[in-house]
């Protein structure tokens, strides 16, 4: 899927500099950033689920661990 990314001059300059530093394309740097952002969001969602489960079932988990 094609997409147009509109950047400020400063963002474009920083993206270009990062691509040169990594020896890759600006597109690859941007795609990597998108993938990282999505992965972090998924991790945050999982952390929230685990925290909720521990709040609800923490006592039961502790008792099971003692068996």
User: Distance between termini?
Assistant: 53 Å
Percent helix among the residues? over 70%
Tally of separate helices: 2
Tell me the number of strands.
Answer: 0
Beta content: under 5%
**Largest sheet: number of strands, sense, barrel closure:** none
Q: Using the alpha-carbon principal axes, give the shape.
A: elongated
Give the class from helix and strand content and strand pairing: mainly alpha
Report the order of strands and helices: HH
Can you give the mean pLDDT? 92
State the low-pLDDT regions, or none: none
Radius of gyration equals 21 Å
Protein name: Ribbon-helix-helix CopG family protein
Organism: Pseudonocardia parietis
InterPro entries: Ribbon_hlx_hlx
Secondary-structure blueprint:
Layout: H1 9-22, H2 26-65
Helix pairs in contact: 1-2
Essential attributes:
67 residues, 81% helix, 2 helices, 0% strand, mainly alpha
